Amino acid sequence: MSAETDRQGRLYIPKEVRKKYGERYHIVTYEDRIELIPVADDPLAAVREAAGGLRDASVEEVREDIEEEAKVDAREKDADR
């Protein structure tokens, strides 16, 4: 699947993709590509679930851990292709 930006740089995501993954995404940049990572409907609940035993960690530390986990997941999916 591919998509193009309009003159103002907006990217239109097909309806079936939005329906499956939602309306909000994190943009993860790599040296050679970008990836869109869906944002949970309740981000705080998703952070708590992903953080597990990191109750004493700062919000920034938890955020960094989650972002790194998303990047690892994306790399693994890319390797499976």
UniProtKB/TrEMBL annotation:
InterPro entries linked to this entry: SpoVT-AbrB_sf
Organism encoding this protein: Halobellus ruber
Protein name (record): AbrB/MazE/SpoVT family DNA-binding domain-containing protein
Bias (Basic and acidic residues): 69-81
Location of the region described as Disordered in the Swiss-Prot/TrEMBL record: 59-81
GO molecular function (one): DNA binding
Keyword DNA-binding among record annotations: yes
Annotated keywords: DNA-binding
